[in-house]
Amino acid sequence: MPPLVGAEMIQTPVQLYRYLLRCCRQLPTTAMQQHYRHAIRQSYNSHSDEDDPERIRMMIQRAIADADWIIDKYAKKK
């Protein structure tokens, strides 16, 4: 299950970027939030020149699955 509602509607890299930044708000500490926000920004910038639609779709699916895993990981530690 994705961490936030609307994950299935993500079609573009910009939508994914905004979604992942919203997911960061669910992390327990400010340091974790800053760390993951930085990682998301770096990843977005490094893949900004990608133009293959299939590859973009795969990256979107993987990023949502990873966000789900990270949110679930820290939710269990509470």
3D structure, described in words:
The chain has 78 residues and is mainly α. Helices cover 69% and strands 0% of the residues. It has helices spanning 13-24, 30-46, 53-77. Helix 1 (13-24) packs parallel to helix 3. The chain is globular and about 40 Å long. The model has no long low-confidence stretch (mean pLDDT 91).
Please name the defining characteristics of this protein.
single chain, 78 residues, mainly alpha, globular
Q: Total number of β-strand segments? A: 0
**Alpha-beta content class:** mainly alpha
Largest sheet: none
- What is the 3D shape? globular
Q: Radius of gyration in whole Å, from Cα?
A: 12 Å
The mean pLDDT is 91
Helix and strand arrangement:
Elements: H1 13-24, H2 30-46, H3 53-77
Helix pairs in contact: 1-2, 1-3
Entry summary:
69% of the residues lie in helices and 0% in strands. It has 78 residues and is mostly helical.
